[in-house]
Amino acid sequence: xxxxxxxxxxxxxxxxxxxxxxxxxxxxxxxxxxxxxxxxxxxxxxxxxxxxxxxxxxxxxxxxxxxxxxxxxxxxxxxxxxxxxxxxxxxxxxxxxxxxxxxxxxxxxxxxxxxxxxxxxxxxxxxxxxxxxxxxxxxxxxxxxxxxxxxxxxxxxxxxxxxxxxxxxxxxxxxxxxxxxxxxxxxxxxxxxxxxxxxxxxxxxxxxxxxxxxxxxxxxxxxxxxxxxxxxxxxxxxxxxxxxxxxxxxxxxxxxxxxxxxxxxxxxxxxxxxxxxxxxxxxxxxxxxxxxxxxxxxxxxxxxxxxxxxxxxxxxxxxxxxxxxxxxxxxxxxxxxxxxxxxxxxxxxxxxxxxxxxxxxxxxxxxxxxxxxxxxxxxxxxxxxxxxxxxxxxxxxxxxxxxxxxxxxxxxxxxxxxxxxxxxxxxxxxxxxxxxxxxxxx
Length: 442
Ligand code: UDX
Fold this sequence. Notes:
- This protein is α/β, with parallel strands linked by helices.
- It has helices at about 10-20, 35-40, 50-60, 70-75, 95-110, 125-135, 160-165, 175-185, 195-230, 230-240, 260-275, 280-295, 295-305, 330-340, 355-360, 370-375, 385-390, 395-400, 415-420; strands spanning about 1-5, 25-30, 65, 80, 115-120, 145-150, 170, 190-195, 310-315, 345-350, 365, 380, 405-410, 425.
- It contains 19 helices and 14 strands.
- The strands form three sheets. Strands 3-2-1-4-5-6 form a six-stranded parallel beta sheet, with helices on both faces.
- The chain is elongated and about 75 Å long.
- The N and C termini lie far apart (about 75 Å).
């Protein structure tokens, strides 16, 4: 099929490349010329494991092309995916200006009947507005079907999630559009759910809100574990054996970040507010998550007293491993708080430094070398569970730090391993290991 994807961001680019890989003829359009030029040269503007090889392969096969030209992108397309940004506004509502701008452009440019699929995460009811715009603006003789087709891609595993996702959700209001979407997706052999448009829009928000709720729940249980001397790793393991609970999204830590959970949970609160339905549970999920972000700096102050002038090694800038994305990363909250306390911060990250530096400038030092960050540090805070941190030999901490005090926001290490080293180790939902030098043990 001839597919066009509007938007070459984390969702749009993965969708375009993967549909090309699946054998479709794909055009991806974006308004940012420098991004399109980068993509035409086979380079992705963001890190996503496995994406670039597929990008280069499908570019060279002529299966995929990039453009800023609206006519080139929309006039011949059979299916158009809206994958433009829907960022959060200051009041927590969703900025739909890019969605509507793309919709108007498509309405004025199409030359054939087309299916327009909204892949971007949009509040319930948005696709009805998109339909109205097409009814008012499209050429009279053309037919435009609007479909809701939310995505469930996780950054860092988006290519895998595209081909091995748990389900495809299609919100559609007529059988012809439904059968075309089936033709498009059935070769992926992923369970396909066809439902009405509003339910499809809600499935996306409800899914992300539930995952965020699961994370805040396990974090609250972790906070309780610390007070009753239980161990959250054991608790989460025991809980997850129950198939009704499941093992995933029970990893206690300093809370969720990223471009989705924080934005989508606030958007759902807004949506509920608009229909005068106070969503108290979700408000608590957000509140718990924000408190979790500040846990480690508080604990550092309890351990070390005032942090003014103290050297902090911050390990991990990206909001999660295997991405260079720092949007709403917990590291940003930690850096802000450390600087407010007058601490001197050196941050380590393998790939997110450029994005972090663009956002926070030279108020901190940056390094892609963990040992460099740890050198002479009074304490270390782990904000992202990069493999490079998880597999760091533990003697590195006492070898390089002035004071081997490690506050681990992602429970990277087992307590048994830590106990073998002269490290003071604070983690989430588990007992603190004090700095007992082996020589002092007998
Ligand atoms: C999420 C949803 O998983 C995905 O389906 C949706 O399409 C987009 O939003 P993403 O935000 O990319 O994906 O990453 P995810 O792996 O879900 O992690 C989100 C945040 O939750 C990260 O900050 C991560 O550190 C945190 N997290 C995740 C936990 O704190 N504990 C967990 O057990 C899992």
